[in-house]
């Protein structure tokens, strides 16, 4: 038998959350010239980070690598090219790419622009304190 003081508070119990309709930030009247993050996962206590990013037509993200985190990359609208150390990967709506940590890549949006969702483990926050 469990005492009522050991039961979780229903107000603090995690529940599924409907965050958005992914088609809304990427289309449905959105400014086609808009660039950057259209949506971010910002719920407190989360273990993941996620963003919907829009690149206008022919815009580029320069070559970079994520040294510590694997990233899932899902094309939600438009098209483009992901250039990796193994060559180009054509991107189109629905394409799901795994970017292992340490992998190098750049992005170029196609004629219709490119909107994509990225998901990765959340980085721990910085803490100010003394070094051990």
Descriptive tags:
single chain; globular; Jelly Rolls; RmlC-like_jellyroll; 1 helix; mainly beta; 7-stranded antiparallel β-sheet; RmlC_Cupin_sf; 132 residues; HutD family protein
Would you mind describing this structure in some detail?
With 132 residues, this protein is mainly beta. The protein has one domain: Jelly Rolls. Helix content is 3%, strand content 46%. The protein has one helix and seven strands; from the N terminus they run H-E-E-E-E-E-E-E. The protein has one helix spanning 23-26, and strands at 36-40, 48-55, 60-65, 71-84, 87-92, 96-99, 104-121. Strands 1, 2, 3, 4, 5, 6 and 7 form a seven-stranded antiparallel beta sheet that branches. Strand 1 (36-40) and strand 2 form a beta hairpin.
Task: Pick out the low-confidence regions.
Answer: none
User: So what's the CATH class?
Assistant: Mainly Beta
Please write the string of helix (H) and strand (E) elements: HEEEEEEE
- Classification by helices and strands: mainly beta
What coarse outline follows from CA principal-axis ratios?
globular
Work out the count of structural domains: 1
Q: Calculate the mean pLDDT score and round it.
A: 82
Assigned CATH superfamily: Jelly Rolls
**Residue fraction in strands:** over 45%
Number of strands: 7
How helical, in percent, are the residues?
A: under 10%
CATH architecture: Sandwich
Taking the sheet with the most strands, its summary is:
7 strands, antiparallel
Number of helices: 1
End-to-end gap = 44 Å
CATH T-level fold name? Jelly Rolls
* Rg calculated over all Cα atoms: 19 Å
């Amino acid at each position: 038998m469990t005492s009522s003081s050991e039961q979780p508070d229903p107000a603090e119990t995690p529940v599924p959350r409907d965050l958005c309709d992914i088609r809304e930030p990427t289309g449905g009247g959105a400014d086609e010239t808009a660039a950057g993050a259209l949506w971010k996962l910002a719920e407190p206590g989360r273990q993941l980070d996620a963003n919907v990013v829009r690149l206008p037509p022919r815009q580029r993200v320069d070559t970079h690598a994520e040294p510590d985190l694997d990233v899932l990359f899902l094309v939600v609208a438009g098209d483009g090219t992901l250039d990796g150390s193994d060559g180009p990967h054509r991107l189109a709506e629905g394409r799901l790419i795994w970017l292992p940590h340490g992998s190098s890549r750049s992005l170029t949006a196609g004629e219709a622009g490119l909107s994509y969702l990225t998901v990765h483990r959340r980085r721990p926050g910085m803490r100010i304190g003394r070094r051990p």
